[in-house]
Amino acid sequence: MSATLLASAASVQAALPSPSQHTWYLGPVPVRAYALAILAGIVVAIWITTRRWVARGGDPDDVLDIAFWAVPFGIVGGRLYHVISTPDPYWGEGGDPVRALYVWEGGLGIWGAVALGAVGAWIGCRRKGVRLSSFADALAPGLLVAQAIGRLGNWFNQELFGAPTTLPWGLEVSPEVIERLNAATGTSFPAGTLFHPTFLYELLWNLGAAALLVWLDRRYRLGHGRVFWAYVALYTLGRVWIEMLRIDTAEHVLGLRLNVWTSIVVGLGALVAFVVIGRRYPEREDGVELPGRSRDRQEEDRRSGGDRHDAEHDSQLDTTSTAHAGAAAGASGRDDGRDSGGGPHRADADGSGPDQGPADRA
Asked: Structure pTM?
């Protein structure tokens, strides 16, 4: 009996508990752990991207300006992909379409976020006159770190876990979550069942992939979007095996979850892009500006910075002109004085000038 109790206590201690609360209130305002995780991920990604962007020769202010477009696009795209790939809670039997708008409940598909986020980033890059490929290379490691931090929100929401496991790091969820899972999947997991913490697997995978990207970029000086395509290839490689462990409801195609097929197709495409671009552009690009825009920026800086120089130059010209005019006037006055004082021409004219000799005076 005592051995059974000890084994039971050891298994409970070894389990990874789930947070008991995911929302706090500041008066009437709800503060949700999922939203905090997403925001924290965005802040860290911007910080990392700014450091890498500056190292590549970019203006640090560019990152916030581009993020202003990329982040909202990415959130909308991520939600759209989630709703499309997991439609039952919203459009299935007993579903509520309005809940598709409840982003705070969790559910942001990474591929939709990357796709529409890239559209927003392209708009921001065009407005700043910089290369989208260069910005994507600077962003890639920070994006992985942001995804890792965002997975903490899934932990608080007790979602995105995998199949049952007896491993010491199995995730413990509340009985209410198990009941909802049983109802959604038609299974009968008993209370106290431990599950694979797939959110934790992805968190660790993303951090490791981010470190590998930084090393590859420093070692081989990747450019022209190759760091970004390496990010896609590494992330999809991890997502395939992690997705295979999950048991939450999702669309299936040919016996596999839709996200598995998406990861396979996108990962292969990223690998091809990485190789092709590497053969075409073996060296990193010289700068982050779009072709021709570097000269435009220099011309703008020259014009804006030259206004003061032009004003000073005009002032100097005015002063010099005034000095020259004064000197000319003085010279003219001396010439006039010689003429009125009886110069040779006037003496010749009337014969009474001071230059007359004695014979003339006689």
From this structure: 0.77
